[in-house]
Structures are given as C-alpha cells and as structure tokens.
Amino acid sequence: MDLGAYRPVLANRDTRDALLLGFLIRVPMWAGAVILTLHVVSSLGRSYGEAGLVTAASTVAVAVSGPWRGRLLDRIGLRRTVGPSLVVQAVCWSIAPWVGYAPLIGFAALAGLFVVPTFSILRQVIIRSVPADQRRTALSLDSSATELSFMAGPAIGVWLATSWDTGWALLVCELTSVAAGFVLWVVNPPLTSGAAEGAPAGDTAGETAGETVGATTGERVAADEPGEAGRAEAIAAGAAVPDDAPRGRAVRGFITLPVAAVYLAAACSTLVLSGTDVGIVAALRSFEATGSIGWVLALWGAGSLIGGLLYGAWHRSFSVFWLLAGLAATTAPVALAAGVPSFAVLITVSGFLCAPTITATVEQLSRQVPERFRGEMMGWHGSAMTAGSAVAAPVAGFAIDHGGWQWGFVVVSALGVLIAAAGLVGSRATRRPGGRSARTARTDSVHGVAAASIDH
C-alpha cells in the first residue's frame, strides 16, 4: 500500500477540478432529496408513503434516462446534452415547490428524465485524465469525495428544511444544482482522449473520438483471436478492449456477457448497501435508540471513506466479484450485534468495502468497454445501481417484517454472496483452458500502457 499514489493523481489539474466540481454538484443533490421528502410531509401534509411515491417517480425517471443521456454524451457531446437539461431542470424546480401533490410527482419525474448526468460526466473526465495505472486510485478518490458529499448533503438539507419554508429550501437547493450544472457546461471538460488531444471538447460525436483513439492505440489483442473468445481472454487478463476489436454477440455494441455480469454486480452491491440502510433504521428502532441513527450512518459512511482511500493506495486491483463477496460477508455479522455499541462497531467494519466495490465496478467496465461507448456504459451502470437500490427496500423490509431486523442483514448478505460466487465461477468459465495468452502483451486501449490486473 502506497498513499503516495495519490500525489500524481491530485497533481493532475483535470482530475483535481473534476473531484472538486463533483463534490460541489453532489452536495445540493443529496440535500435536495431530503428536502423533497420533508416538503411533501410538512408543507403538503402528506404521509411518508406518499413522499416515497414522489421519490420513486424521480428515481425511476433517472434510471430510465441514464442510458439515453449517456448515449447522447457519446454522440453529440457534453454541451449539447447538458444544455437542454439545464433549461428543463430550471423550469421544473422553479414551479415544483409551489404546486400541489399530484403536479409535484409530474415535475419530479420530468426533472428526473432530464437530470444532468454528472456522475457519468465526471467519471469519464477522471478516467480520461489519468494513465491506466492510476485509474483505480483516481476513481477511489471520486468514491471518497462522493461519501463526503453524502455525509454533508442530507445534514444541510435537514438544516435548510427546518430553518426555512420547505418550498424556498427546495427552490434554493435545486437551483444551486442547476447552477453547478451550468458551471460544468461552461467548463466543458473533454470526455475522451480524442477530444483532449485536439477535437472540440464535448462537441464532437463520440464515434469520431472513438475512431481516433482506436487508430492511435498501441499493441492490440492478437488478430488470430477473433470474436467473443478473444474479448473474454483480454478482459480476464485485465486489459481494456480496443475500440476496433470484434465485439461478437454484443448488445448495443458493447454489452457482452462479462459486461452484463459487472452490471449485475453493481446492482447487487447497491442491493446490499440499501438493504443495510433499511436494516440500520430497523435495528436502532428495536434498540430504542432512534436518536443514534444519524451518527451510526455517519460511522458507516466513514468506514466506506477509509476503505475507499486504502483501496486506492493498494498496489493492485481486485475483481469486483471478490470485493462484492467481501462486502456481503462483512455485512452479515452485523446481525449478531447485541446493543448499540457493538452494532456501531460492526456497521463501521461493514462499510470498509462499500466504496472499493463501487470503484471496482467502474474500473472494470472502463477496461471492458471501448471508449466511444463510455457515456452509455456509465448510464447503464447508474441504472443498474438504481435498480439494485429499488429492489433492496422491499426485500429487506419483507425479511425484517417476518424475522426481525437481523434477517434484513442476513438476506441481503446471502444474495450478495450468491451473486459474487456466480460471477467468480462465470469469469473463470470464460477463460480458455490455457489461461492467459503469452503470445501478446495486452495494453490499455486509450493510454497504450499495461493495464492493471483486475481478476485475482
């Protein structure tokens, strides 16, 4: 482990700016989600269940729009994708705080469909701005910054909603998000290496940038390994697939079985995390310690923050399936807690692999998917994580209702272990009997350097 690995990443201006901008964008985003719930309950006089419907409408819309917005980023660039979103967001959130319950659902859903794809944009900038051997470290920093924003945003949201009228708090918070998106539109960071090397940043079709990258790539996967077999072996070796490599039976040009498996791991990781979130509330209510929910959640987030930083400083990457297995395995023992102190310790330990697991899904996808599909890739990644989170609440809730809070942790952990085991078995099945090929040295398709191993 080498904490000095962060020095060259932070010295990179593009990466540093993306991390700072990401934090400033995400804080009002998390705050707005809390304020929206409190606005429905307090100002509109509705139940928490009805507030959940508003959140669900927005969440479903965001999940549906993810691949679409990502594909637009690939095809028409950042400004032409983000510009219309800013207009729709500004209109929706200027009106939504002052309407009734039913119209609010419609405005929340419409705003979700045209949400600025900030996670996709900023992670593409980070991936593009660093060499392949620094990618995991840079993405770990992004995950850690996300944890910090998640710890700060809801607290700020609660403070605003209790200090101001919730309508004004919602307006200020959401328009702050729009302003942050406008800054992103003005900065217009290059999303691909082709744009960074001279094409108009964010205004060139993704396919053109991808073709430029493919033409300038260093060594390739051997030409006598066509189709799915060659791709599977290249992925198993930890290398990125070049833009011009044959894609076999790929859906939408890049979704192969290995890619779909990583999406499943991403969905399962948020299933475990969101299930844990529900379990924390249920457990502390059972302990008659609801006042401890805030600081226990903060400890969980702090564990994830520390784990993410340590993973970024580690000397190698790990398969997402090993990390998912570890995440699930460390979550199950939380069910053994006998009181608040032991629960706090166990939940902190379970947080250590949260950020590393999410980081690994992004890193592994970035090596498997050609650069010209990276926006849509990130869109599907966000949708997969949203789907996992949506499934978690009813699954964990059913387990808690029928077996107590302990079963909420046990069930989501068991599902995580099963998916991780299936992924590990499947990843080995895609390899050829001979294992890694010694006939060619595989390189990252964008940076032309040896890619870090991601399967151990």
Low-confidence stretches: 199-240, 434-456
Shape: globular
What do the pLDDT scores average to? 80
What proportion of the residues is helical, as a percent range? over 70%
Q: Find the count of extended strands (DSSP E, 2+ residues).
A: 0
**Using only CA atoms, what is the Rg?**
22 Å
N-to-C order of helices and strands: HHHHHHHHHHHHHHHHHH
Distance, first to last CA: 17 Å
Largest sheet data: none
Number of helices: 18
- Structural class by sheet pairing and helices: mainly alpha
Our estimate of the beta-strand percent is under 5%
Account of the 3D structure:
The protein is mainly α. Helix content is 72%, strand content 0%. The protein contains 18 helices and no strands. It has helices spanning 6-11, 13-43, 48-76, 78-95, 101-113, 118-129, 135-163, 166-187, 193-196, 206-216, 227-236, 257-286, 293-313, 320-331, 340-350, 354-368, 374-403, 405-429. Helix 16 runs antiparallel to helix 17. The chain is globular and about 55 Å long. It starts with 5 loop residues before the first helix and ends in a 27-residue tail after the last helix. Mean pLDDT is 80; it is low at 199-240 and 434-456.
